[in-house]
Amino acid sequence: MNDSFPYKRVAITGGAGFLGSFVIEKLKAYDGVEIFVPRSRDYDLIEKSDILRMLSDSQPDLVIHLAAVVGGIGHNQKNPGKFFYDNLMMGVQLIEQSRLHGVRKFVAIGTVCAYPKFTPPPFKEDDLWNGYPEETNAPYGLAKKMMLVQSQSYRDQYGFNSIFLLPANLYGPGDNFELETSHVIPALIRKCVDARRGGDGFVEVWGSGTPSREFLYVEDCAEGIVKASAAYDESDPVNLGNGREVIIRDLVQTIARLTKFEGEIRWQSDKPDGQPRRQLDTTRALDKFGFRAQTALEDGLKQTISWYETSFA
To answer: What is the pTM for the complete model shown?
Structure first.
């Protein structure tokens, strides 16, 4: 990175979270950038009054909205109403109040869950409206996708500079490893490491193992967000990924090997698989702001496993 960034006061919702901590580190590489992180204990971003207070306290010229109420398939199934309402209200009100407050740019972070269930891979941004999202995470995906509608309509009517990014499934050090709420990679790492440590002969894994996913290392995602924040000023949505698809069954075998778990994998075929396939077309990110993911899956998994083993020794 060079030492110049076009925005000096940056508010990052969710900045204390998994992805947010990496985005902050990337921004710290630039001189003169002031970063404000609204903590949930101080600002309830579902409430308009708290959003107004946050904007008044931070006076940002750039808002990066990372905050989300999110979890794996099981957590989505248990909380569809909460996931829809909380994410929708945060996004809609943050964009509106940022516009009214004179924020120069708003970066909305969407989700790969916004894509239709049967989107043919690789997912192109133009496919976003070609069907309904996969049922287990549709409320979350649709709530986040409304920020795209708002972003584009606000640009058309008000000239408000808002962009919308669609990251692939994230993973990396510092992820959420709570089994009730975590995504697939941290859940698998925890299961395999804990089973190896406890001498258990098997681990149970949701679904059939046949779906595919694309996984983006969290530091790569942070790099893409910062690049887009600095250089991308168009209304079209942009995928952030590495363009590589992995079958869940192969992922499980890789994690078992890297964690040195030698027991049995028991597939819980009565549990949902989620979306059949996920793989992103990453051409637009490369063309528009020069982003290309750098971390190979196995390298990222090794770093994530090492972090978990050290942090939960």
So the answer is: 0.95
